[in-house]
Write a structure and sequence with these properties.
The complex is a heterodimer of chains A (245) and B (257).
Chain A (H helix, E strand, L loop, with lengths): L19 H35 L3 H15 L3 H15 L2 H9 L3 H28 L2 H9 L4 H16 L1 H14 L11 H12 L2 H30 L3 H8 L1
Helix pairs in contact in A: 1-2, 1-5, 1-8, 1-9, 2-5, 3-5, 5-7, 5-8, 6-7, 8-10, 9-10
Chain B lengths: L1 H8 L1 H6 L10 H26 L4 H15 L3 H14 L6 H27 L2 H9 L4 H31 L11 H11 L4 H31 L12 H6 L4 H10 L1
Helix pairs in contact in B: 1-10, 3-4, 3-6, 3-8, 4-6, 5-6, 6-8, 7-8, 8-10, 9-10
Classes of the chains: A mainly alpha (245), B mainly alpha (257).
């Protein structure tokens, strides 16, 4: 019995033929764009949410907690679909028409949806980092006369971001991979391009292989960079535990 | 608002579809997919996780390469791989099994990391103690390391189940009618019920995931971290009291601790 009877002859000229090559190149560009923009936006929103969650004021604390609990327990795909189908209709009438005329709204919806999904996770990670800052450091900051914002800016956040670098990096790699979900709203990114080529030429494996290689390369190199940075910025934990006592 | 309550009254459709007459759809299909993929994935994950900490370099590196490649590929691409690749090698599988296979490949890679971390978290002395009482390595693994490791892994398994459950919504893209597809279908067939359909979709996912994350928190509190301090052969206060030593020495040792 033949175990692997491949009924497929690879035709490697397909991904390098126009218009498919153009689609793939736009796909790569858009994937990187979506990944970078969502990473930056979710980092900003997530940090803001984390600061809100550790604050003592209830009107900052509770909304942030509700946001995180809602967003974390619903799949990211739902947020993409929500921003693509529902969000434009919730806006006042003039804006809805404008959005419907805008050709790249799918990309915008993808970015918004991924940002909403990712920021909740990022806020959880950053919150853990803020809580892990030793009590003594904050007390030292207070006693040297820094106010709350200065404490955050100069003491808490720099330390927190160093300790959370590994989980944050993992989350950003996850976010990069999740950018492929944008094909659900027909944003012309890499996965969408491979599916489009498959449905036109019936030859999916070549492009899927190329796309897989692309994703694996970028994700692994991101992981490498994060490991490097982690080693470079590592805080000597033994000295911290000595300071605490 | 009235449409919302109308859709909520239709909860059975979101939950199981027309199950006894027609194939299972809706939220239950998501749960079934998550359970199947995690169950199948776990059996491969144990092998992969053990392979990653094997002492032979070729096993360690090949298992590591498999895990790394799968972990850095988007789930969507894994699904497409199996969707297009299985017919090519002559396997005729239904959509459901195609989804199960791709999800369990994805789950296996992630669970392998959990298994590896759990085994590495068990102190080295446990394995050495097992070997020195005359057990073989597999025996020590099964009867000493695994019971402790699984207890450590349980909270992360529950939270992984949570994320896997959310990931099952992705398979709607190859045409499986899960909760996402149900919501989309309803919103496309009845455009005036679009808000209600999406709200029901979100509520369905939210309830299950919230229950899971709640369970994960409770588990973590109850049995998350074993008290490994008690395993360490260090001098504790209770031991010192029994020792026949001068009081000054005892006090010195206790304050040192």
């Amino acid at each position: 019995m033949k175990f692997f009877n491949l009924r497929y002859d690879f035709d490697w000229s397909i991904p390098f033929r126009e218009p498919y090559l153009g689609w793939l190149i736009t796909g790569v560009k858009l994937t990187l764009l979506i990944a970078i923009v969502t990473a930056i936006m979710s980092l900003l929103i997530g940090t803001a949410l984390a600061i809100m969650r550790v604050s003592r004021f209830k009107f900052l604390n509770i909304p942030a907690k509700i946001y995180v609990e809602i967003v974390r327990n619903i799949p990211g795909l739902f947020w993409l679909l929500f921003f693509y189908f529902i969000f434009p209709q919730l806006l006042p009438f003039g804006l809805t028409d404008k959005i419907n005329q805008y050709a790249y709204y799918s990309v915008v919806a993808g970015i918004l949806g991924l940002t909403v999904d990712n920021s909740a996770y990022v806020s959880d990670i950053v919150r853990a980092g803020i809580l892990a800052v030793p009590r003594g450091h904050i007390e030292a900051a207070v006693s040297s006369g820094l106010n709350r914002l200065q404490q955050l800016r100069y003491i808490i956040l720099p330390e927190a971001f160093r300790t959370i670098l590994p989980p944050l990096g993992t989350r950003m790699i996850h976010n990069f991979k999740n950018s492929s979900l944008c094909m659900a709203v027909a944003a012309p990114e890499l996965t969408w391009a491979t599916q489009q080529i498959e449905s036109i030429t019936f030859r999916g494996l070549e492009v899927t292989l190329l796309a897989t290689v692309f994703y694996v390369t970028i994700a692994l190199s991101m992981a490498m960079i994060i490991i490097r940075l982690e080693k470079k910025w590592k805080i000597d934990m033994t000295s911290i535990s000595k300071m605490r006592t | 608002m009235e449409f919302f309550f109308e859709q909520l009254a239709n909860w059975k459709f979101y939950l199981i579809g027309g199950f006894p007459k027609y194939p299972l759809t809706g939220l239950t299909l998501n749960i079934v997919l998550a359970f199947l993929s995690i169950g199948i994935g776990l059996s491969f994950a144990i092998i992969l996780g053990l392979g990653r900490i094997s002492s032979r370099w070729y096993i360690r590196h090949s298992c590591g390469a498999c895990v790394d490649v799968v972990r850095s590929t988007p789930l969507l691409l894994i699904i497409f791989w199996f969707y297009f690749f299985l017919p090519v090698i002559g396997a005729k599988l239904s959509l459901f099994w195609c989804a199960v296979i791709s999800l369990s490949v994805y789950a296996a890679a992630y669970q392998a990391e959990i298994v590896r971390a759990g085994i590495l978290a068990v102190p080295k002395g446990q394995m050495e103690a097992g070997l020195s009482t005359g057990m073989s390595k597999p025996q020590a693994l099964i009867s000493i390391i695994f019971p402790q490791a699984f207890r450590m892994m349980l909270p992360s398994f529950v939270s992984f189940f949570n994320s896997m459950f959310k990931n099952t919504s992705t398979v709607y893209i190859i045409g499986i009618v899960d909760l996402t597809r149900t919501g989309i279908n309803i919103s496309q067939l009845r455009p005036n019920r679009i808000y209600a359909a999406y709200a029901c979709m979100a509520i369905g996912f939210w309830i299950v995931c919230y229950a899971l994350s709640f369970a994960a928190q409770k588990l973590e509190k109850r049995l998350g971290i074993l008290d490994y301090e008690s395993y360490k052969p260090e001098i504790c206060r209770e031991d010192l009291v029994l020792l026949p030593l001068p009081k000054a020495v005892k006090r010195f040792l206790i304050t040192q601790k």
